[in-house]
Design a protein that fits this description.
Blueprint (H helix, E strand, L loop, with lengths): L1 H32 L2 H26 L5 E2 L2 E2 L2 H26 L1 H8 L3 H5 L5 H31 L7 H32 L3 H18 L9 H6 L2 H4 L6 H7 L6 H25 L7
Length: 285
């Protein structure tokens, strides 16, 4: 009898949690899209677009071509390098840091977190709703820029355009996964630390960069290790891409990388929810 009543109570609470998270998502998405961070986001994703425009103009004018070790790099391969060097190694971690750490920290800094937590909704639904808003905001801006870069670079080789389109779909999924995992990790950082932006930057551009070049198992404790292990499988298999392939000879399999990334993201988000529900937020006077 007691077990059935408990199950009934939990089933009644689940829709409330989801409804509250959706409401927070709706409010937060509008705020994020019209915030100063979106201007920063637009400037960040404009960099690879500008680089792709320069590449296309150069190729169209016959002024030269991109070469690595004396080997000409085709348009699809250039697109793959932009995805690896700019998006995955820089843009995705930067957006994860600046948005993920701010999900709760901004409310604390603006002294509005009290108003959120005094409403008849669970604290966990607040961070889940804001996390989903972050994910939607970044995806809506980043992925269209990837499409623009793709057609500016890969369409140079029109004969190979149809065959490289599946690689574009893999890259889009990879970027979405990266934004989701980094966002969850830095949402946890924002929920736990008083100054999360500093901690996030140290993790993304200090610890991860150092661990990746050190021998041993330290790289396994980074998001980048599993994320970039999927890159060679998403990029065109030609020319200079063999150089990037050789870097990841000791990388885990695609299935293992995907599994670890999903685990890291889910666990980080669950711990972020737990931290928010149990943390006492003291507002500075």
């Amino acid at each position: 009898m007691v077990a059935s009543e408990t199950k009934s109570v939990r089933s009644n609470q689940s829709p409330k949690f989801l409804a509250a998270a959706c409401r927070v998502f709706d409010l937060s998405l509008g705020e994020m899209l019209w915030s100063r961070r979106t201007v920063f986001l637009g400037l960040v994703v404009a960099a690879p677009v500008a680089l792709a425009i320069v590449f296309r103009v150069t190729m169209a004018a016959g002024l030269g071509s991109v070469q690595i070790n004396g080997m000409q790099v085709a348009g699809p391969a250039t697109f793959g390098m932009i995805i690896w060097l700019l998006y995955l190694r820089f843009i995705v971690p930067v957006l994860g840091v600046f948005y993920g750490t701010a999900l709760i920290a901004d409310e604390v800094e603006d002294k509005t977190i009290t108003y959120l937590f005094t409403r008849p909704i669970s604290r966990g639904s607040v961070i889940i709703g804001k996390y989903l808003a972050y994910l939607a905001c970044t995806v809506l801006v980043v992925l269209p820029s990837v499409m623009i870069v793709f057609f500016l670079t890969a369409s140079v080789d029109r004969a190979a355009l149809a065959t490289t389109f599946p690689a574009l779909l893999k890259d889009l999924g990879l970027l979405g996964l990266g934004l989701a995992v980094y966002g969850a990790v830095f949402a946890l950082v924002g929920a736990r630390l008083k100054h999360p932006l500093v901690g996030g930057l140290v993790f993304a551009f200090g610890w991860e960069q150092l661990a990746l070049i050190l021998p041993g198992y330290l790289r396994r404790f980074t998001v980048a290790y599993y994320l970039q292990a999927l890159v060679p499988h998403a990029m065109p298999q030609e020319g200079a891409m063999s150089l990037l392939q050789s870097v990841f000879r000791d990388a885990p399999s695609p299935a293992a990388s995907l599994g670890w990334l999903v685990l890291i993201g889910a666990l980080s988000l669950a711990l972020a929810v737990r931290a928010v529900e149990h943390r006492e937020f003291v507002l500075d006077q």
